[in-house]
Amino acid sequence: MTNHKYLSIDIGGTNIKYGLINQAGQISFKAKLATPSEKEPFLAAIDQLIADYAPKVSGIAFCAPGKIEKSTIRFGGALPFLDGIDFAQRYRHLALPLTVINDGKAAALAESWLGNLKDIKNGAAIILGTGVGGGIIINGQLLAGSHFQAGELSYMIMDPTQTKSTEDSPMGTGFTGGTLSAVGLIKKINELTKHDDLLDGLVAFKELEAGANQQVTALFEEYCHHVACLIMNIQSVVDLEKFVIGGGISAQPLVINGINQAYDDLYHTNEAVALTLCRPQITVAKFNNDANLYGALYQLLLTTAPEKFN
């Protein structure tokens, strides 16, 4: 069965990534194209991908931002024109199995299938990017929730005094999505160090590694503290074995070390917490750029062959 190939498509705010993957998780081909900024050119690009690859595959797996209701995208996150698009309906004439999954949940499924949550019954993936994505695995299965929105970690409240929507921050700055934005952290570090390119993550982490700027160090420690708070909040509700941290900044060892140190500080400075909550393992996610391709396919395999993959 591993000779069966599937088309996996990851719709991102900057690029549409796609690849051919078999049931063993082996990628034989992958590529990307720039994500069009309007609905009609976007659909035309997807239609062309489907036309090119549908005759060669046994199924199609989509991953997209936003809340996904079965195969319909709601809201669309960074791509609001995705709202209401139903890929299964659009490509029903192909008579191929087709699924759609949220990007954070796809990352969690990738880790559960072939990554650092493999064989973990209760775990979670936290993806630190422009906002905070994620997915929660309970009893070996992805938690969807009553309204398909479990794991929308960007909407957890960090500061209840700053939840009002503003012109500069439609979501409000008190939510996790703003407080724990990895892009926001890098911008703040580069502003403090007066670096021209505010989005240059490598320069920002060189400053952190040097440790010479106390303001930069304090900013990073505060960020790690907030991530640790997020993990503890989740842990107090669902009691997980392991959290994996993904997103571009997770490749920096400083990040995982900093989050673990911050969690230990929380854990050991409050006796009631230490006595009540078991400490979960916190480590880096295995997959980065290809996580959503794997996770989208795994969702398709779980849907079409649950007896084999569950």
Q: Could you give a short description of this structure?
A:
This protein is 39% helix and 20% strand.
Summarize the topology:
Blueprint: E1 5-11, E2 15-22, E3 27-34, H1 39-53, E4 60-64, E5 67-69, E6 72-74, H2 87-90, E7 98-102, H3 103-114, E8 123-128, E9 132-138, E10 141-142, H4 176-179, H5 182-192, H6 201-210, H7 214-238, E11 242-246, H8 253-268, H9 271-276, E12 281-284, H10 291-304, H11 306-309
Parallel strand pairs: 1-4, 4-7, 8-11, 11-12
Antiparallel strand pairs: 1-2, 2-3, 5-6, 8-9, 9-10
Helix pairs in contact: 3-10, 5-6, 5-7, 7-8
Derived structural class: alpha/beta
Number of helices: 11
Stretches where pLDDT is under 50 for at least 5 consecutive residues are none
Strand order of the largest sheet: 3-2-1-4-7
Per DSSP, what share of the residues sits in E-state strands of 2 or more residues?
15-25%
The average pLDDT is 93
CATH homologous superfamily grouping of the largest domain: ATPase, nucleotide binding domain
In the CATH scheme, what's the topology name of the largest domain? Answer: Nucleotidyltransferase, domain 5
Descriptive terms for the model:
20% strand; 5-stranded mixed beta sheet; 310 residues; Nucleotidyltransferase, domain 5; alpha/beta; 2 domains; 11 helices
Characterise the protein shown here.
This protein has 310 residues and is of the alpha/beta class. The protein has 2 domains: 5-106 and 289-309, Nucleotidyltransferase, domain 5 (2-Layer Sandwich), CATH 3.30.420.40; 119-284, 2-Layer Sandwich (Nucleotidyltransferase, domain 5), CATH 3.30.420. The protein contains 11 helices and 12 strands. The protein has helices at 39-53, 87-90, 103-114, 176-179, 182-192, 201-210, 214-238, 253-268, 271-276, 291-304, 306-309, and strands at residues 5-11, 15-22, 27-34, 60-64, 67-69, 72-74, 98-102, 123-128, 132-138, 141-142, 242-246, 281-284. The strands form 3 sheets. A 5-stranded mixed β-sheet has the order 3-2-1-4-7. A hairpin with a 2-residue loop joins β9 and β10. α5 crosses α6 (201-210), α5 (182-192) runs antiparallel to α7 (214-238) and α7 crosses α8 (253-268). The two termini are 17 Å apart. The model has no long low-confidence stretch (mean pLDDT 93). Keywords: Kinase, Transferase. This is Transcriptional regulator / sugar kinase NagC.
